[in-house]
Backbone:
């Protein structure tokens, strides 16, 4: 099933309210409440497909939220009930040269997919429907994935004569194993939510009506903890996939660094005083 979409309409204009400040994105809705930010890719008529404009806006939004001290966890989802992100805009690259293709992939990695993975705040992907091609790659860049029971996931790029270019060949094997990843990529077939759960591609599967509640439930547990320590933990876990870094040494260094933070002092003091900690993220 080919769900990568050709589209040209770029006329949607949406505003969002964040802490009483109105900001504008053409393809995103963003809401912030109680230290949790929710980003919705808002192109339901295009099944929330990615193009360069959407990627640029997501990149800017994630960077702004990372610098926002009032936000400690981010939830990413797609508008409507059909799709998280159903793929990429083929019309943007159908006539690209070899060099342009390389640049497209490199730019996507830098601007969005690696950016999300390396963010110091946890990002939860709430996968509501199709997550295909770049959509699944975006979900895999997030730190935690939850799927609605109607979700369908896959990397169908080889059916178009190309391969996944936004990290799919690297992140999928790490999550589901080389054999399963090879089968998904080479057959270009979709898997359902239960299979994704069995493969370890998603953490939870819930009815669609409960998807955002489950995402907020997990986010609510995250924000109770030290944001500084969580940032260190993300960095340490990501070191597992960095061949240039000794992950164990990275853990040792970050463990030691944590001892010099205000959050460590607050966390240990609160434990000894038998009270809940009040983490400031310092």
Residues:
């Amino acid at each position: 099933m080919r769900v990568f979409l050709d589209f040209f309409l770029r006329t949607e204009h949406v505003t969002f309210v964040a802490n009483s400040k109105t900001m504008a994105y053409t393809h995103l809705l963003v809401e912030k409440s109680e230290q949790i930010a929710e980003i919705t890719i808002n192109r339901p008529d295009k099944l929330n497909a990615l193009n360069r404009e959407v990627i640029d806006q997501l990149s800017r939004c994630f960077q702004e939220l990372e610098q926002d001290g009032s936000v400690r966890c981010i939830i990413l989802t797609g508008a409507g009930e059909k799709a998280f992100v159903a793929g990429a805009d083929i019309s943007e690259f159908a006539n690209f040269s070899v060099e342009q293709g390389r640049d497209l992939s490199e730019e996507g990695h830098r601007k969005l997919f690696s950016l999300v993975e390396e963010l110091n705040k946890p990002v939860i992907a709430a996968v509501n429907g199709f997550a295909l091609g770049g959509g699944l790659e975006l979900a895999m860049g997030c730190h935690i994935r939850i799927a609605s029971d109607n979700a369908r996931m896959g990397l169908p790029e080889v059916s178009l004569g190309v391969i996944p270019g936004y990290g799919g060949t690297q992140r999928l094997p790490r999550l589901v194993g080389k054999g399963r990843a090879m089968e998904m990529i080479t057959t270009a077939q979709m898997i359902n939510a239960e299979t994704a759960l069995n493969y370890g591609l998603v953490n939870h599967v819930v009815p669609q009506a409960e998807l955002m509640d489950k995402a907020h439930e997990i986010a609510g547990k995250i924000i109770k903890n030290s944001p500084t320590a969580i940032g260190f933990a993300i960095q340490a876990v990501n070191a597992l996939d960095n061949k240039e870094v000794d992950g164990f040494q990275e853990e040792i260094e970050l463990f030691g660094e944590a001892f010099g933070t205000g959050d460590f002092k607050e966390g240990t003091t609160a434990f000894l005083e038998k009270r809940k900690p009040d983490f400031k993220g310092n």
